[in-house]
C-alpha cells in the first residue's frame, strides 16, 4: 500500500508544453529545456516563435558565459538546450503528449478560459495544467476546466532564467498529487518554491505592486525625486532596482492592468489604488524599457 501511495503521489514529468512565447513563456521554455525536459513552445504566429527562439538562444549564451566564470564557455550548453525545444502553432496537437502544460498567454481571462478548455480536451487525462497568471484568480480561470484537481498556478519572475523564485499556487480543488509534482518540477528547474493560496498577487506582487504605486505617489507629492527614491531603495534596502527602474522593466501597461483589475474587484482595499501619472504615461504609449521610455528615457542607452 505504501509503495502504491508513493507511486501515485507524484507524476513523472518529461514533456513540457508552454502556451505563449512572450517574455515569460520563452523564459520558462529556456529553463525547462536547459534542465533536461523536452519542451514544445506554442504560439499563434510563426514570426513570434522565431523571435522567441532567438531570444532564448542569446539568453542561453549569457547563462553559459556566466557558468564559465570567465573560463572556457561550454558551447554545447546552448545548442543542446535549443535542441530540446520544438515549436508549434497548433495548441491541440502540441499538448497531446505533454505531462505538464504551462499557460503563459496574455492576462485576459476569456482567452485563458478558452485555452484551458481546449487544452483539457486535447491533453492526456493525467497531464497537469498550470497557469503563469500574475493577477487573475485561479478560481475564475479554472471555471473552464472539468477536472480541477490537476490545475494550479506556477508563477515565474522576470527575467525567468535569473530569478530564483517560483510561486506554486493551489486552489481548494488542486490535488495533493498535482501540488507535489509541481514542487518537484520547480526544484528540477533549479527554482526555490514558495506556496501561496489563490489570493490577489500571491506573495511577491501583492507586496511589490502597492510598494511601486506608493513610490509614484511619493514622487507626485514631491517628497523626493525619482532618482533619489530609486537610489534610496537600492542602497538603503538592498533592492537590485529602485521602484521606478523596476516599473519600467516590468512594463507600465502590465502594472496598470494588474492594478485596474484589483481596484475593480476590491474597491475597499486602500492598498489598491490607480495612479493618474502611471495612467497618463500608458496613454502616451510610454510603457517602459520596451518602448524606449517610461518613467525614464532609454532612447540614448543600449
Ligand atoms: N537571461 C540570462 N541571463 C540574464 C538575463 C537573461 N534574460 N538577464 C540578466 N541576466 C544575467 C546577466 O548575464 C548577468 O550575469 P553576470 O552576473 O554573470 O554578469 C546577471 O544576470 C546580472 O545582469 P546584468 O549585469 O545585466 O544587470 P543587473 O546586475 O542589473 O541584473 C537583474 C539584472 C537580474 C534584472 C536585476 O536588476 C534584478 O534582479 N532586478 C529586479 C528584477 C525583479 O524584481 N523582477 C521581478 C519583477 S516582478 C515579476 O516578474 C512578476 C510579474 O508577474 C509582474
Automatic annotation (TrEMBL):
List where the protein spans the membrane: none
What are the UniProt keywords, alphabetically? Answer: Hydrolase, Mitochondrion, NAD, Oxidoreductase, Protein phosphatase
| GO terms (BP aspect) | fatty acid beta-oxidation
Query: ATP-binding among the record's keywords?
Result: no
Enumerate the subcellular locations listed in this protein's record, separating them with semicolons. Answer: Mitochondrion matrix
Q: Which reaction does it catalyse?
A: a (3S)-3-hydroxyacyl-CoA + NAD(+) = a 3-oxoacyl-CoA + NADH + H(+)
Whether Hydrolase counts among this entry's keywords is yes
Which pathway does the database say it acts in?
A: Lipid metabolism; fatty acid beta-oxidation
Q: Which GO terms describe its cellular component?
A: mitochondrial matrix
Q: Which GO terms describe its molecular function?
A: (3S)-3-hydroxyacyl-CoA dehydrogenase (NAD+) activity; NAD+ binding; phosphoprotein phosphatase activity
Describe the subunit structure.
Answer: Homodimer.
Q: What is this protein called?
A: TYR_PHOSPHATASE_2 domain-containing protein
Say which species the protein is native to: Caenorhabditis japonica
The shown range, given as first to last of full length, is 293 to 594 of 594
Amino acid at each position: 500500500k505504501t509503495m502504491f501511495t508513493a507511486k501515485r503521489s507524484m507524476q513523472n514529468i518529461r514533456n513540457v508544453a508552454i502556451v505563449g512565447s512572450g517574455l515569460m513563456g520563452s523564459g520558462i521554455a529556456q529553463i525547462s529545456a536547459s534542465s533536461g525536459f523536452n519542451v514544445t513552445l506554442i504560439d499563434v504566429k510563426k514570426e513570434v516563435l522565431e523571435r522567441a527562439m532567438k531570444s532564448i538562444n542569446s539568453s542561453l549564451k549569457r547563462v553559459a558565459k556566466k557558468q564559465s566564470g570567465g573560463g572556457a564557455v561550454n558551447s554545447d550548453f546552448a545548442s543542446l538546450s535549443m535542441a530540446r525545444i520544438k515549436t508549434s502553432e497548433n495548441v491541440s496537437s502540441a499538448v497531446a503528449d505533454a505531462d505538464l502544460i504551462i499557460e503563459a498567454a496574455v492576462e485576459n481571462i476569456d482567452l485563458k478560459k478558452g485555452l484551458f478548455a481546449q487544452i483539457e480536451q486535447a491533453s492526456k487525462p493525467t497531464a497537469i495544467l498550470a497557469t503563469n497568471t500574475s493577477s487573475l484568480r485561479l478560481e475564475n480561470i479554472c471555471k473552464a476546466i472539468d477536472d480541477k484537481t490537476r490545475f494550479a498556478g506556477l508563477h515565474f519572475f522576470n527575467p525567468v532564467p535569473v530569478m530564483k523564485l517560483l510561486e506554486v499556487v493551489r486552489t481548494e480543488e488542486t490535488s495533493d498529487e498535482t501540488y507535489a509534482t509541481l514542487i518537484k518540477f520547480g526544484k528540477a528547474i533549479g527554482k526555490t518554491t514558495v506556496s501561496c493560496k489563490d489570493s490577489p498577487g500571491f506573495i511577491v506582487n501583492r507586496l511589490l505592486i502597492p510598494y511601486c504605486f506608493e513610490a509614484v505617489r511619493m514622487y507626485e507629492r514631491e517628497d523626493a525625486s525619482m532618482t533619489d527614491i530609486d537610489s534610496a531603495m537600492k542602497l538603503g534596502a538592498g533592492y537590485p532596482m529602485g521602484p521606478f527602474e523596476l516599473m519600467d522593466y516590468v512594463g507600465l501597461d502590465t502594472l496598470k492592468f494588474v492594478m485596474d483589475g484589483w481596484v475593480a474587484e476590491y474597491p475597499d482595499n486602500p492598498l489598491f489604488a490607480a495612479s493618474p501619472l502611471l495612467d497618463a504615461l500608458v496613454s502616451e504609449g510610454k510603457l517602459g524599457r520596451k518602448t524606449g521610455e517610461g518613467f525614464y528615457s532609454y532612447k540614448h542607452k543600449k
